[in-house]
């Protein structure tokens, strides 16, 4: 049995783990410092499954290849794992002649990579395809295969499938060192003790360069690139059917305007290079949010007023000093594998990265065979609000909790919340957090962002699970939801 440790429970690390659980003879363990899956780079991005026609096939041949392979794998994965997704296609909107001229090269890239259906369109066709486009735009580039998913739901679904297939997650566990002996990796030292290992995969996102240095690899660095976003209420009327974005630049694919799988208008991101030490600097700025609002106004017929924004947020992408993906199996130290510098289009490429990395590992091991009992499918949490009446009534008769609506904005039931808690425990989440419930159910995700349902959910966690409200956290350490019980204040103590 080969002990295989994957460092990083984001979409890349989880995709690698899912592929490895297909084989008999591997013990697969995923480690992450965060208290839940997908809470690093995966948590905050544009959620696009790119067509891949913007990848330069000469400058980035591996990235281009993995992007298209990953795109095609997602069609299968979203069905197997019941991940919310849609495939509306995308339009790069040109607002002047120079931008329109610059789009021609992407037709060549598409042809060489194998992306189907990419073509230039004039203003008339563009407005017929997408009436929400600014009529001042002069043309665009249409790519019909673009899609969008919920990246957090994807990470959660893959994690559940890994555990169903015998894999293990160690969350809230920080890697402190990698032990190398006689030219081979032999163990990983963590905040919870040492773990013996034959294979160590570095998929640590923003911290991949630091993990590699623990194994004696020091030929690249990672710096964070911040992307800020505006998320609007699902009640606004501006909801483009297609994925829209401004003309790409050498630094970024542009500012997007999309309708998410949950029905919200999302615009962004910025592309701000931050110093290496700012790897947790996911704050938003007035300047950044003003920039994306102004850029989106160039490609949309109109924008909702700013008072319809329900959430602003920022994500950090790992930009490698090499400028491209770093995916390799090291002979020195033997057994150390990297999937580092996974910047855009990392979400799109993730399933293919997982397949590629698993192949690098499997071809170097002996007596490894595909499992006949591998489980490809996972069922999502039932969502009564989206069921047919007869199906919903049957579910509620079987479990009345599904008839008790807790989050009015998103029509999320108590049954969904308790099922989310059950699944969190099953995959090894060390602490039930409010954000963990939010990402699994989309409660606390509506116009009020939880101001109405969050206290109710905290109360129910107390009554159903015995977790005192002042011990419940939003996202783990340092984020307590409540201070103490009122009686404790009257007594003059903190009730902790």
Could you walk me through the main structural features you see in this protein, from its secondary elements to its overall organization?
The longest helix is centred in the N-terminal third of the chain and has 20 residues, at 61-80. The chain folds into three domains: 2-42 and 151-221 and 323-370, FAD/NAD(P)-binding domain (3-Layer(bba) Sandwich), CATH 3.50.50.60; 90-144 and 226-315, D-Amino Acid Oxidase, Chain A, domain 2 (2-Layer Sandwich), CATH 3.30.9.10; 384-491, no CATH class. The strands form six sheets. Strands 6, 7, 8, 15, 16, 17, 18, 19 and 20 form a nine-stranded mixed sheet that branches. Strands 10-3-1-14-22-21 form a six-stranded mixed sheet. Strands 4-9-5 form a three-stranded antiparallel sheet. The protein has 14 helices and 25 strands. Helix 1 runs parallel beside helix 6, helix 1 (11-20) packs parallel to helix 9 and helix 2 (61-80) packs across helix 9 (346-362). Strand 21 (326-331) and strand 22 (334-340) form a beta hairpin. The mean pLDDT is 96. By secondary structure, it is of the alpha+beta class. The protein starts with a strand and ends in a 5-residue tail after the last helix. The chain is 31% helix and 24% strand. The chain is globular and about 60 Å long.
């Amino acid at each position: 049995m080969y002990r295989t440790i994957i460092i990083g429970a984001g979409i890349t690390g989880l995709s690698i783990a899912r592929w490895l659980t297909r084989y008999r003879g591997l013990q697969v363990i995923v480690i992450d410092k965060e208290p839940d899956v997908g809470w690093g780079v995966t948590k905050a991005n544009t959620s696009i499954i790119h067509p891949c026609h913007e990848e330069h096939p000469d400058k980035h041949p591996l990235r281009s290849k993995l992007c298209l392979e990953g795109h095609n794998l997602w069609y299968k994965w979203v069905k197997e794992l019941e991940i919310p997704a849609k495939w509306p296609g995308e339009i790069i909107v040109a607002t002047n002649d120079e931008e329109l001229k610059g789009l021609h090269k992407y037709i060549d890239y598409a042809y060489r990579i194998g992306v189907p259906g990419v073509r230039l369109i004039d203003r008339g066709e563009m407005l017929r395809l997408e009436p929400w486009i600014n009529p001042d735009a002069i043309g665009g580039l249409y790519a019909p295969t673009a899609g969008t998913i919920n990246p957090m739901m994807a990470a959660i679904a893959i994690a559940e499938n890994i555990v169903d297939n015998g894999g293990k997650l160690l969350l809230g566990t920080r890697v402190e060192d990698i032990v190398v002996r006689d030219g081979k990796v032999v163990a990983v030292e963590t905040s919870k003790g040492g773990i013996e290992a034959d294979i160590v995969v570095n998929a640590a996102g923003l911290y991949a360069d630091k993990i590699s240095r623990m194994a004696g690899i020091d030929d690249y660095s990672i710096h964070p690139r911040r992307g800020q976003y505006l998320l609007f209420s699902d009640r606004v009327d501006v909801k483009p059917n297609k994925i829209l974005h401004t003309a790409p630049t050498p630094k970024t694919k542009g500012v997007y305007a999309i309708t998410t799988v949950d029905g919200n208008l999302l615009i962004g991101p910025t592309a701000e290079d931050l110093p290496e030490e700012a790897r947790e600097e996911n704050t938003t700025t007035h300047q950044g949010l003003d920039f994306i609002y102004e850029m989106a106004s160039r490609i949309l017929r109109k924008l909702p007023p700013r008072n319809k924004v329900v959430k602003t947020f920022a994500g950090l992408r790992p930009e490698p000093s090499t400028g491209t993906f770093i995916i390799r199996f090291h002979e020195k130290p033997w057994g150390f594998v990297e999937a580092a510098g996974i910047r855009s289009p990392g979400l799109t490429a993730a399933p293919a990265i997982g397949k590629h990395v698993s192949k690098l590992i499997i071809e170097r091991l002996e007596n490894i065979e595909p499992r006949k009992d591998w489980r490809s499918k996972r069922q999502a949490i039932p969502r009564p609000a989206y069921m047919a009446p007869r199906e919903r009534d049957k579910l509620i008769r079987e479990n009345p909790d599904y008839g008790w609506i807790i989050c009015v904005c998103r029509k999320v039931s108590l049954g969904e919340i308790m099922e989310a808690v059950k699944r969190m425990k099953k995959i090894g989440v060390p602490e039930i957090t409010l954000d963990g419930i939010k990402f699994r159910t989309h409660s606390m995700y509506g116009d009020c962002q939880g101001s109405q349902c969050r206290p109710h959910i905290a109360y129910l966690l107390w009554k159903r699970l015995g977790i005192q409200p002042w011990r419940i956290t939003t996202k783990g350490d340092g984020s307590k939801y409540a201070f103490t019980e009122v009686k404790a204040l009257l007594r003059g103590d903190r009730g902790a």
